[in-house]
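Narrative of activities, Objective 1.

The group set out to show that a structural description can be obtained from nothing but a protein's sequence at a throughput compatible with the screening campaign. Below is one input-output pair from the validation batch, recorded exactly as produced.
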Amino acid sequence: MRSGFVALVGRPNAGKSTLLNALLEQKVAIISPKPQTTRNQIRGIRTDEDSQIIFVDTPGIHKPQHELGTQMNKEAFAAVSGVDCIYLIVDASVPFGTGDEFVLNIVKDKKLPVFCILNKTDLMSKDQVLDCLMAWNKRADFKEIFPISAKENKNVKELIEVTKNYLEDGIQYYPSNQVCDYPEQFIISEIIREKVLYLTDEEIPHSVAVVIERMGRKKGKLLVNALILVERDSQKGIIIGKQGSMIKEIGTQARKDIEGILGETIYLECFVRVEKDWRNKKSKLQQLGYIPIEVDDE
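Output recorded for this entry:
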């Protein structure tokens, strides 16, 4: 069996999480049209008769504006080490910019196979795709260049088959039926955060986090209490909505997705709390899992 790890890296909103879900043929990473949706490395596992590929989705690499952004970049940089192959995911529908050049310089000097994945070709004409492919071919010595549409699942299966050629014969790291290596709490908190991103205004996305405060089972149902953190009172009001309408809709949509992923009935309660400037507080970022907790060697 061929097996190995593939890192998905790129700028925010390049479509990395959408591609991960397409590669796995099911949802394990949250997606939204707003940048910097992914904050942690997310490992998705694809197993078939002759291979197991562990895809590592990463936060979009960007110029950080706060401590959270700095930690997100560190997550992405770390993912490039210890893998067998790198997918550089590019939003091919927008012009090449300084952000693309920054990410390209990070990956092109790695002594690893690098695939240039030209995503969002569904938004382009055939001539535009060809011009983009030729331009990227001149920018680095890529092992492969793949024009794809992760949203429409175009060329994704072909990408998987070619990737197998770059992996060595090895062990099976995970059971065949496992598609993600994160616990239920992480999955549930991410789905709730996704619904907040989709349903609320531009003021909200980067200043929200979700903490699962309590989980348990009763009469065949999974009971979940989730805390949504924001930085300002005005944001709390937006998430709660008029007479609680917004938080009710967030909970309803999240519950449906969570039940679909976990395959069981859940009872979900969501609350909102203001935690001023939490994105710059290392202690809070550690509590939320964005920074590893430091342990003294003594």
